[in-house]
Amino acid sequence: MAATAKKDNKISLKVMVHKEKNQVVFAEADSTFVDTLFSIMTLPLGTLFRVLEKCPDKNLKTVGCLNNVYRSLAELPAGYFTDEENKFLMLNPRTYGYDYCFHLEHKIDDTEPTNYFKCGGWLCNRPGFSFTTCSYAKCIYCGSVMNEEAGDQFDGDDEESVFVPNLVSFIVTDDLRVMPNTSDFSIPLVCDLGSTDPSHLEERTIDICREQMVILVKAALLCKNPLTYLVFHNMHPSGGLVTKLGTSIQHLTSNEEDTKIKKLTLRVSWQKSTSKFLFAEANEDFVDFLFGFLEIPLGTLVGKLNNGNTSFECLNNLFASISNMSVGECIKSQKLKDMLIQPLLVYKYVSGNQIFPLNVPKSYEIHYHEPKLYLKDPRDLEDRYLKSPSKFMLTDDLVVTPLSSISVFAMLNKLKVPLNDVEQHAIVIGIKEGLKILNAALESNSAFTDGLLAEIIEKKRRYDV
């Protein structure tokens, strides 16, 4: 039976506020709130940033420029893809946590439930044949549209809570550290604010709906005090982000042989006189890799790719809290804990240009369907999602469009850049450079400049001198 969502009721949250400082010290939260908070670790970045773009609080600015990657993918004509369903799969990435999170009181993910389809041809309904999650995909055997429903795959439970035990209470700090609700933790939190007088504290109760959960998550990406922002919503986010681009990469590459990591090439143009990035030209392999940013789960980004040390302090705290929680007492099972900190993608097949080590299933079949059906591989013979050869133009804020010389000249004319002031360089992109671009895209509107070119241009300048 397919999963059904719970009624969208409000969550009551008790918060302890420092009256003089107008600051939340901590919140007392039950499993309903903590489950929803933890669930963001299961979200692919494409899903997360699509949801955050709909955030109702217009005082919160746009986070980075990954939304431009999503929009570019959505607007790219279907003719650029090796298979009709590739665009659908890239726009709708899923992790195994999706069906579990569908039971949340306020699930962040607003995408539709996963449906499974097969070919209706009688010759294609045999062991070893394939299924898809895209209703307009075509059968690789007979070419018919695979639009016959093939059942569902959900194997979760109907318990009230999802990740944490139903009756356990937690403390959530202003910077999203989550811990058991005991005075051993709560009293030091107040003392850390420099206050020992309990009369300075005030208890408040706020009601949380889904829209406010979205605001809280977006505020967590923009400041160090998202709970305070949620309670005192007329205040501007404070604290700011500490840029740490590239500081968390060594652990990812130290155990990899450099020769085994695929290298991609990017041709970058910048203005010689100002060292300002202008545009980049890339083939289908690099753009395939760039679109692959969208399928990376947040838990993988924070943990596996950045070793818990992103520039988003609240996300680091949330990931560390989950990692340190005991199974059974605070998290219901090791399987659910892994679902949060080591998210597994639903789809076995990823692009051969996805150079980041993502967790994917070894195989994928519909367990409750006879005869067994296996997930269709929509990639071409070289494991690509995009057709070859294709050329694209990329802006600094990661807008991707088919390459056009006319568009290049129009852009240079708009920027008033003389043609003899343009310098081009080919840059090799490996896992280290790719992660720098990804991290910059999460917090900046100048992903190539901040993530890659600033360091290259500075080295070139010192060399020329």
Structure write-up:
InterPro entries: DUF674 (IPR007750). Pfam families: DUF674 (PF05056). This protein has 465 residues and is α+β, with helices and mostly antiparallel strands. Helices cover 31% and strands 15% of the residues. It contains 16 helices and 14 strands. The chain has helices at 31-39, 45-52, 66-75, 86-91, 98-101, 183-192, 210-222, 226-231, 250-253, 284-291, 298-305, 313-324, 334-341, 405-415, 431-441, 447-464; strands at residues 11-18, 23-29, 117-118, 130-132, 148-149, 170-173, 178-180, 201-208, 264-271, 276-283, 374-375, 391-394, 400-402, 422-429. The strands form 3 sheets. A 5-stranded antiparallel sheet has the order 7-6-2-1-8. The protein has a 5-stranded antiparallel sheet with strand order 13-12-10-9-14. It has a 4-stranded mixed sheet with strand order 5-3-4-11, with no helix packed on it. A hairpin with a 4-residue loop joins strand 9 (264-271) and strand 10 (276-283). Helix 15 crosses helix 16 (447-464). The longest helix has 18 residues, at 447-464. The radius of gyration is 24 Å and the shape is globular. It starts with 10 loop residues before the first strand and ends with a helix.
